[in-house]
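yo

u said u wanted the structure for the complex thing, so here. seqs first:
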Amino acid sequence: MTRALQAAGPRIAVSSTRTLASIGIAVALAVVFIQACVIVQARPQDLVTGVHGMADIINRSLPPDFSQFAPSLMPALETVDLAIFGTVFGVILAFPLAILAAHNTAPSRPLYIGARTLIGVCRAVPDLVWALLFVTAVGLGPFPGALALAVHSVGMLGRLFAEVIEDMDMGPVEALSLTGASRMQVFTHAVIPGVLPSLLGISLFRFDENLRSSLVLGFVGAGGIGFYLLTAMNLFQYQTVSFLLVLTFVLVVGAERLSAFLRSRVS
Amino acid sequence: MTMDGVISFAGGLNAPPMPSGSAVAGRVASPRLAVRNLTMRYANGHLALDRMGLSVEAGEMVVVLGSNGCGKSTFMKCVVGLNRPTGGSVEVSGQDLAALSGQALRAARMPIALISQNANLVKRRSVLANVCSGTLGRHRTLATRLGRIPKSEIEPSLSFLEEVGLLHLAHQRAGTLSGGQAQRVSVARALAQRPHVLLADEPVASLDPEAADEVMRLLRRLATDDGLAVVCVLHQPELAVRYADRLVGLRRGQLQFDLPAGQVPMQQISTLYVS
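structre next:
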């Protein structure tokens, strides 16, 4: 009996320590959340009092002005093309960088660190900021937006590509190296066929994300539907705004479905 | 099959007719693979191989037995040039691999093909493309660097696939094959390399008994009919006894025995696995 109590002693101590730790973690999380509410000046009552304003805007937005269909086709195409340009150039630049940034394919340590840093910088700076930078460099229009998407995509794709390359099955690579194949041959015959489906899937997913980003980029003067939307907002043409939102919804969902379909075909 | 604790060489029903004894009479006198005093001490001081010697002639199949960590894998890696031994020599067709490095080593190890436990095929490519990729070392052209397979190797590769009994799967994706089929394709890829020496590192470890038998029969036939020197690391003494000309026992990096398969007492094999 005494021995049983002695054995239970440390167990009780351990469980009470755990309970204390759990309470501590819960309190810490609550503190973090409360400070977030304070800092963002969360005032739920404003949502209630502001409901009239929202209802007014919705009322003025309906019905959507479908006569804007023809004039919005060109901006819509511009938005899609921004995403295509950004994705294609992103992939073209990210792939070689990813090879240098994957530890199992990097030819040397300095190149590995350089590639990782470059990818990190491209990713850390948001596409909106890249767009502002490129607008100051090449002026207003879709081109700075396309460049911004390309550069930011290099950051996002470079990291994901490098992860895919690092996770690939190295068995075929070793097997081909032992047959006397050169580095380049091993790369084209074992590495590329091994990672290509994943890379295509990631690129298609990136296209879908770039399309959504390109809508926002219009707000900073990078063309496309975003710019059209901003102009309509400034002119209080809410029916045009609501139509453009419908169009945006169709574009985004369409791109999502297309990208998901193509990804399923690839895999 | 067992007489006074000695396993006879005749083996099971599926065993093909085999020459008895160690050396195959009437074949080339100089060994295809000659390993002398091979010693490997790792950087941490562990002596993985201690003055190991092995000689394999054309047409001969040698099976290396031993427990995990006895030095079998180190031995294979040293022979194929993946590890640089700290002492001794590995002569393949008269050239000492242990003394070479870089491009010279890559060229010199072309006559050695290695089959691993996993088939290591590129799963998304066709079976034929996988077999052809065994020939890349001999075709360093721009086209092959860009991922094309050498056209002149398609016909021979098809014949290698026929040799392993999988010609009908030539255009199928490698990822769709069963374990046994994939391993046979890896044998065909090794053959496409036109090796003199075929090393097999636990080639049947992940296969069911039937598939394992098929792969072993194939290796045996390649030694007997094509005159390859085959060195195979196995964990299954019964398969070893059934298919090998000679058995080599390794324990703690040292050679315990190197005898014709029919002359190794089962007891002696068991001692390899006693910790």
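Chain A is about 85% helix and 0% strand. The mean pLDDT of chain A is 86.
cya
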